[in-house]
Design a protein that fits this description.
Layout (H helix, E strand, L loop, with lengths): L2 H25 L10 H8 L9 E2 L10 H15 L9 H12 L6 E4 L2 H11 L7 E5 L4 H14 L2 E5 L6 H9 L6 E7 L11 H11 L2 E5 L11 H4 L3 E5 L11 E5 L17 E3 L5 E3 L13 H17 L1 H20 L4 E3 L11 E6 L4 H12 L1 E2 L1 E3 L6 E5 L6 H18 L1
Parallel strand pairs: 1-13, 3-4, 3-5, 5-6, 6-7
Antiparallel strand pairs: 2-8, 7-8, 9-10, 11-12, 12-15, 14-15
Helix pairs in contact: 1-3, 3-10, 4-10, 5-6, 11-13, 12-13
The protein binds pyridoxal-5'-phosphate (PLP).
């Protein structure tokens, strides 16, 4: 046997063994017992490649990718590279999995690189004229706001923003409604806002937009994978999803969903192979469905990895994941709020809360506190400079435990006593 062939077989065997081990670990997850849940969650946490002793609280920035997902990507990549194939046909299977997970039809799902690309496709592709208006919240992430600021700069689209309230969904709906006028063409919302984790009233806004013929785009970068997100039930026209945050998909994965009935209104800003084809007369026509928003050679291993991450969440239980994240966040919220001199900026109201807690203290600058937590306690939070909040954000997800949350609260208390 030639050397290259032998080495290929060794690599293939290693890949298969790795995948087998990760699959075994998933298959061996213990039964969930509501009265004694920690053994289940410890087994889930063991699926992550995170270093022991490291508390990772930045899923809202970038999710840790579970080992079975990493191994699926490696296995598909190795298999395809054995013959240098792109494997594009396998997008069909991945698309069906993603559609099921997001409550969409396969023809409504386009694979993009991140939530920003999904948002930017909508901002660049809707036929807006100078003076047409878009509404979104002041807390929108740059990946949500900048595509519209560029539409304002280049095409004269008018941006109107409202300040999200951390106490009441009705107030948020009223603030948004007050901005709706005869030139409003688009409303975009973060389903859950990035700086402080406010859940915005997506379904009520969808109803408002439908009744007025306004395009409603929902940015689910912070919600998909944190809570169950159902595109059809939410009633939006388009949805942006980040694969590499709460879902735990591979880096540089994202999804754009566009409602079938409105796809003709959203032009793909970039096209190429797969976006369309030439008819017998040589005329270019777009592909049916959301495939029109994809173009060129893509990484099918990443798409299959994203589908694997979604299946893993389904196996663990999507409602269970949402409840766990909220419980850990509630624990962090209560513990931090009880520390003298700490202000929690995230919502208290149950219908607005998410698996994120943003807090600050006037006694220690937020960037100093961030560094202290990381260097001295191996606790990774996320600085929040948006809207000059100068705070720290803690995301609580599957890779976190009550003990980690307690250690975070204890560490902040210790630094407050030491530094102030
Ligand atoms: C609400 C929101 N939208 C968009 C993004 C950008 O996400 P991506 O990195 O997938 O482009 C983020 C990232 O934190 C976000 O929080």
């Amino acid at each position: 046997m030639s050397l290259p062939r032998r080495s290929f077989l060794r690599h293939a065997a290693l890949g298969a063994a790795g995948l087998g081990l990760a699959r075994e670990a998933v298959a061996a997850l213990p039964e969930f017992a509501a009265d004694r849940p920690e053994p289940f969650w410890e087994a889930v946490r063991a699926l992550y490649p995170l270093e022991p002793g490291f508390s990772y609280f930045n899923t809202g920035g970038l999710g840790s990718t579970p080992t079975p997902v990493l191994e699926r990507v490696a296995e598909v990549t190795r298999r395809l590279q054995a013959k240098a194939e792109h494997g594009h046909a396998q997008f069909t299977a991945a698309r069906a999995d993603v559609a099921r997970f997001l409550g969409a039809d396969s023809a409504e799902v386009a694979f993009v690189r991140n939530a920003t690309e999904a948002n930017a496709t909508v901002a660049a592709g809707l036929p807006l004229r100078a003076g047409d208006e878009v509404i979104f919240e002041t807390h929108a992430h740059p990946g949500g706001a900048f595509p519209w600021l560029q539409a304002a700069r280049a095409r004269g689209v008018v941006v109107r923003t409202f300040e999200p309230d951390a106490r009441s969904a009705a107030v948020n709906l009223a603030r948004l409604t007050a901005l709706v006028g005869p030139r409003t063409r688009v409303v975009q919302l973060s389903h859950i806002t990035a700086p402080t984790g406010i859940t915005l009233p997506a379904r009520a806004v969808a109803d408002l937009c439908r009744s007025r013929g306004i395009w409603f785009h929902l940015d689910a970068a912070q919600s998909a994978g944190m809570v169950p997100v159902d595109f059809t039930a939410l009633g939006c026209d388009s949805l942006a999803v980040s694969g590499h945050k709460w879902i735990g998909g591979p880096l540089e994965t994202g999804v754009l969903c566009v409602r079938r009935a409105r796809q003709e209104e959203l032009e793909p800003p970039l096209v190429g192979a797969h976006s369309g084809d030439l008819d017998p007369t040589g005329r270019f026509a777009l592909s049916p469905g959301a495939l029109r928003y994809e173009y060129g050679t893509r990484n099918v291993a990443a798409a299959l990895g994203l589908a694997e991450a979604m299946r893993l969440q389904e196996r663990i239980g999507r409602d269970r994941i949402a409840a766990r994240g909220r419980q850990l966040a509630a624990r962090a919220h209560a513990g931090l709020a009880a520390l003298p001199g700490v202000e929690v900026l995230s919502p208290d109201a149950p219908d607005l809360r998410a698996a994120m807690v943003t807090f600050r203290t006037a006694r220690i600058p937020h960037d100093r506190l961030f560094g202290l937590l990381l260097r001295e306690k191996s606790i990774r939070a996320r600085p929040v400079t948006e809207e000059k909040l100068n705070a720290l954000r803690v995301s609580t997800h599957l890779c976190n435990s009550p003990a980690q949350v307690d250690a975070l609260v204890a560490a902040v208390g210790e630094f407050l006593r030491r530094e102030a």
